[in-house]
Amino acid sequence: MNTDVWAVDGSFFGQRISGIQRYSIELLSALDALVPPGRVEIVTPPGVRAPVYQNIQTVTFGTRRGLAWQQLDYPAYLQQRGARGLATCNVIPLFGFRGVAVVHDVCYRARPDFYTAPRDLASALWHRLQYRRIAAVADAIVTVSQFSKSEITRYYGVAPQRIFVVYNAWQQMQRIAADERIFAKVPQLRRGEYYFSMANLLKNKNFPWVLRAAKAKPDAVFAIAGGGSLQGEAKRLGLAGLPNVVYLGYVSDGEAKALMHHCKAFLFPTLYEGFGIPPLEAVACGAPRIYVSDTPCMREVYGGCAGYIDLETNPGNVDDVTPPQRDAGELLARYSWQASAQALWQVLEQV
């Protein structure tokens, strides 16, 4: 085996970008500045384009797409190349993989009550199978927080010395230009006078808390960005038609940056996260304060720089949030993709 070469599963470049894909993209970009030429390759399915790097080589291999490529063509490349694999998005080939896997969180295992619809149940079963397989065969596991590391050990019995923490970061927000035109499009939003959240229907994101907070504070405006049937969910909850709630739908990155910069506070009442990057991105965009749920993960990541929502005693009230003890801007010095890439490279070199 050519243990000097790491072959990265690059199929995520063909996927819709969420936090997991963003982590992979930014980490590899920073890693490119650190690694010697010829040590890291990104392998992609046909038709999926990866960026052009200085030191990291990109290779197109195989004939399949999607899950079939990931489970069949990618491990075939590892075998043919004699390389170790690096899988950054929670999934590895069930057979033929040796290397390092990134597990962002084990929510599917820790909170099965979040996944009750048939499609969600199928996804939960698949990911729990993946977690077990990663625990069994990966040379090392990378995760995004000490909290997530403790969860992997708790649920899958992985020895702590096999798990390494490589944090998320925020510098990608520097490349985005704020689009202030959103305030002309939505005149109900006045700079500095609204609460902002980015929502979806995933149960861990706790969208109902924001609606209850809006109902409890009718004199304040709550702006909610996100796709899906958020208004339909509000109707199901009996919280439709609140006059102080503005549903923005999908917003561009530039619009999101402007909304974060000018909000009164960014709301993130999550029930479960491995890291929880949106509040960090909000601070990077200039949000004056962030309110997050009072959970071990959020305490680890945000420390005294956030206001905390005690979800057991606070069903929805922004006025009953423990205030931040420190300037939120101090967060930015804690996290960088360069430092995270260095930590990842140390793991790869150690393995």
TrEMBL record:
GO terms for molecular function: glycosyltransferase activity. InterPro entries: Glyco_trans_1 (IPR001296), Glyco_trans_4-like_N (IPR028098). Gene3D superfamilies: Glycogen Phosphorylase B. Residues 94-168 form the Glycosyltransferase subfamily 4-like N-terminal domain. Keywords: Transferase. Residues 183-301 form the Glycosyl transferase family domain. It comes from the Bacteria. The keyword Transferase applies. PANTHER family: GLYCOSYLTRANSFERASE WBBK-RELATED. This is Glycosyltransferase family 4 protein. It comes from Candidatus Gemmiger excrementipullorum.
